[in-house]
Amino acid sequence: MARSLATKAGGRSRLVILACAVFAAVLLPLAIAQAADIDALQDKVSAARGEASSLTSALQAAQSELAAAEEQAAAASAREEKLSGLLASGEERAARLAADVRRTQQRLDAEKKRLRRARGALAERLVAIYESGAPSTASVILASGDFDDLAVRSEYMERIEQSDADLAGRVEQVRRSVTRALKRVAALKAKVDTYNARLTAARSEIATVRADAEAAAAQLDSVAAARSASLATLESKIASWVSDIEAAEAASRAEAESTVERWLGGPFSIPSYIVMCESGGNYSALNPSSGAGGAYQILPSTWQLYGGQGEPQNASKAEQDRIAAEIWADSGGGAWVCA
Questions:
Q1: Residue 192 contacts residue 94 (beta carbons within 8 Å)
Q2: Structural domain span for residue 166
Q3: Residue 43 lies in a domain
Q4: Does residue 317 lie in a domain region?
Q5: Is the same domain home to 210 and 277?
Q6: Over 239-251, what HEC string results?
């Protein structure tokens, strides 16, 4: 009996080793191939995530530059608008001063005409005095009939002389006044023109800055859009690759579970190699030394503990499978020597 038990134990050990070897031979190539595919996908995901991180950093930098360019463009636009307002006011003032210059010039021309007429009258007066001779005090006295006549002649002569002097002085004064006004208005006009020229130059410069800033903003916006699109594409690829990895891992697990189920489950409630080791799959087997019976070699006390009726080896397959499954759920492989 001892020899028989030893022979049986040796056979069981060889059976367990053979089952494990076959199990490893089937699963190992599959695991290696699937692991290689998964590793390749994971390498792609890692590289893509690195690229996505670089794109994200570049995109953030471009967006910061875009915000700065847009702010610069807005500031330049506001400055340009302000200068345009100042220039409009300056041009309006220049137009008013130009009108003043024209009116003052017209006034000066009129006064010059008056001056020419006054000078002509003075010239005629001087010619008349030269031809008739300047009346002396003696000739006035001698020509007077009485004292009243003398007084009238003297007053008349004084008025003529004063009128000549006033006319010449007035004309000269008006000419100088108009000339000064014309110079003053012309100077103001030149000053406003200079100011307007500076405003025009400044506005042109600001317009150039604004245009450059807007062009830079447009270019940065295009770059940001392109990078966003690239990042979205990359993220889509990453998501696809991650899905492929998950699918491969799920397939690997499913294949492994299927293989394990085939090799370890089979038609029994516990792994096949344990059943084959214990009883060779014979539901009527009986161990005379321990009293364990059935395909799962369940002890009678354990059989009764789990609600079994009669002897295990005499029970139906379904009953043996049910109680074996409950024992496996409670104790796992520890309930069997072959495990």
A1: yes
A2: 81-215
A3: no
A4: yes
A5: no
A6: HHHHHHHHHHHHH
**Contact criterion met (CB below 8 Å) for 26 and 263:** yes
Please check whether residue 242 is in contact with residue 48, taking contact to mean a CB–CB distance below 8 angstroms.
no
- Both 125 and 194 in one domain: the answer is yes
Measured in degrees and rounded to the nearest 5, phi and psi for residue 221 equal -65, -40
Asked whether residue 26 is assigned to any structural domain, the reply reads no
Tell me, yes or no, whether 113 and 178 share the same domain.
yes
Q: Supply the pTM of this predicted model.
A: 0.39
- Domain count for the chain: 2
Clarify whether residues 93 and 158 are in a common domain.
Answer: yes
pLDDT tens digits, 47-79: 989 998 888 998 899 889 989 989 999 999 998
CA neighbor of 188 nearest in space, from 251, 96, 123? 96
Residue 336: give its domain's CATH number: 1.10.530.10
Residues 6 or more apart whose Cβ sits within 8 Å of residue 97: 185, 188, 189, 192
Widest CA span in the chain: 198
Residues 268 and 281 sit within 8 Å (Cβ to Cβ): yes
Tens digit of each residue's pLDDT (9 = 90 or more) over 99-138? 988 998 898 888 888 878 877 876 776 676 666 655 566 6
The answer to whether 286 and 313 have CB atoms below 8 angstroms apart is yes
Residue 262 and residue 22: Cα distance in Å, rounded? Answer: 12
Per DSSP, helices labelled H in the chain are 2-132, 137-143, 147-260, 272-278, 300-305, 317-331
Which residue type occupies 319? E
Q: What is the CATH number of the domain that holds 165?
A: 1.10.287
- Is 303 within the bounds of a domain? yes
Amino acid at the residue 323: I
Whether 209 and 77 have beta carbons less than 8 Å apart is answered as: no
**DSSP line for 91-144:** HHHHHHHHHHHHHHHHHHHHHHHHHHHHHHHHHHHHHHHHHH-PPPHHHHHHH-
Which has the closest alpha carbon to 244: 33, 30, 45?
A: 45
